[in-house]
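hi!! sorry for the late reply, been swamped w classes. u asked for the two structures so here they r. pasted raw, havent cleaned anything up. first the sequence of the first protein and right below it the tokens
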Amino acid sequence: MSNLTDQILVMLKMQESMNLKVHSNWREQAFEWYRAIWVECAEMLDHYGWKWWKKQEADMPQVHLELVDIFHFGLSAKLMENDNLEELSNEISTAISHQENHTDFKLALEALAEHTLRFKEFNMSIFASCLTLSELSTDDLYKQYVGKNTLNFFRQDHGYQDGSYKKIWNGKEDNEYLVDIVADLSPDLADFQEQVYQQLEQNYPD
């Protein structure tokens, strides 16, 4: 699936389903999506590295995972503004295609956090700059988003809310399993999401 608008529509539908899984009346709960976004921005900056008094190397795989997490919250914020998914997918696609002109990842990330705090909304154009500067393509965003969304569903299905879910599988975190599973699958598969879920199921310890 190469059309950005089509990819976004799929992700919006998946995000709506995930939010409904967490709470059947999620829109009425007034969840503070903006707060989740700026907190994730701060966490991501630690993975990227910013401390001038010590040697640091950017952990780009972790930065990309954090960007995908932010996108989950960003889509949720956008779904609060407009529940017409086709219309919203076009709007988001246009915003991503007209990204803001940043040249430094740290400054772009801070601009995203600042906008989120000031206006309590998600700015897709600034987010798109973060994608470009971190060298995460929209195709990779789509692939990683579908994978992480599927893992989130898997977690909910296996006791995440009541605390019985096991996040460490045979000494390895579930996110690490997900990275390996997604790497071996094509996002163009019609049953991509189903295959990710099945492989998570196969690896989950009894």
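now the second protein. again sequence first, tokens right under
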Amino acid sequence: MPLTLVLGPRRSGKTRVGEELAADAGAPVVVLAPLTVTDDETAARVAARRLRRPPGWTTVEDRDLPGALAGADPGATVLLDSLGTWVSEVLWQGGGLDDGTDGATAAELLHAEVAAVAMLARERPGLTVVVAEEAGWGAVPPEGGARLWLDLLGDAAQALAEAADRVLLVVAGRTLELP
């Protein structure tokens, strides 16, 4: 079944678009949320997103995306929200966000896991929608960890775009289909 990648900057409306695609698929929805909540602001954002989603949707909070995707009901629509959060989780758990120097192992793991996610998404009978931040349009940050995150997020988005049947770019709430 198709893999759809929904790209956009922060606060662009990309999650809303991803949620609409998932809702319109006509199947049960599993939301993969690879986030460790570490502060009140993040907890409030997570709570707001949960309230916005239909009550029948299942949320799986797990950093092991290949495992979570493989374990999802094959006929369900899977919504991964978000790729950038997952990349930061992988780097954070591996120490790569500290200064970028300890991220080599996390980067290797991430590349392998992105390939697995792309393959699993393509093999599933149900729709898979991946919401991803399109980062790096601004200044290059001075911190090594932030630069590593941008690089790895860009690599992951390109790999998933190559595997995707559909790629959408959301800017200011407007959606453009990319060829």
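hope this helps!! also noticed smth abt the second:
The chain has one domain: 3-178.
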